[in-house]
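Continued from yesterday's entry.
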Amino acid sequence: IIASMGLMGIFLIFTVVLIILVDKEGDLSPWARSFFLRFLAICLFLGDLTKGRHNKVAPEQPETDDVICDDVTIYDLDEEVKKDRSVTTGKTDGTKTDETIEVLRGILDQLVQTNKEETAEESDYQLLCKVLDRLYLVLYLICAPAIVPMAMYLGNHP
């Protein structure tokens, strides 16, 4: 029982390491990428996880804190409110509201599309965690049955 609990403790520590690694950002070194994501992944029947992945250079970050938006119309809300307050009589036909809703829908569609494109590709560390998780499973399935006879043998022979 003690040996089995020790084995579970060791693999629990391995799981904590995986949890820490899965949120890490950046790229693996070339040797780690080829060893873990190619060779070890093929040995563990995950396939070549480097296919379709390129060594991407991170895009340069803008030096200012300005938000860069393409194809977006910027409205001055203070000016729009002043125009609406200056008209005190007459009914509104809702065209400004409809236009605003359409603009907001377009912006939201762009944001959703951008978010899908960004999250579609898994990082190197997420793929590494898949490989290590499968490796830990295989090691546990090998060690769990092997520990019983080993514990019985060691228990009988001091």
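--- second protein ---
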Amino acid sequence: MAPTQVLSAQDEQEKLLDEALQNVKSQSFQMKRCLDKSKLMDGLKHASNMLSELRTSMLSPKSYYELYMAISDELHHLELYLVDEFEKGRRVADLYELVQYAGNIIPRLYLLITVGVVYIKCNEHSRKDILSDLVEMCRGVQHPLRGLFLRNYLLQSTKNILPDTEMQDECAGDVSDKRSNNDGSVSDSIDFVLLNFSEMNKLW
């Protein structure tokens, strides 16, 4: 009788990671195919399926990081597509609300962050309100590994679009100044970063 082959921990990790990456590759291909055909909702469904791979508890931090990076690259493609569509005037009504119907919280929050960034870049909503909403919603994931990577995605996605202006005097300011106040200030950016960092510390 042939001896039973037992996979080492490293081999098992490589096998699990390879299977997850293959599914990411397949789902991202279908996502891009749907986006090319302007089938956004179908594309978001495949994006959600792809993001479901991040629900795993089987991968080591190193393997999870590799999976996270592969998925982040694909989400960037979705973000660029949405920004392009919005800039062409092909806006999808209530998209920020629609992605909140994703079946599981992990895909839901990654999609919410991606769409939230698009809304900010296209001036669809108050930057201050969206950032506040996103950092609070991420509290829904309390698993240490999944939560840390989710909050890292939030930080990496928003680092170049945080409010960077000083708060204007609302009484003296004109309409554009008040709009700027609603968009947030440097103080709001600091609060956002510190709150996100504080929540990350709680996950260790």
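The radius of gyration is 20 Å. The chain is about 70% helix and 0% strand. Will compare against the first tomorrow.
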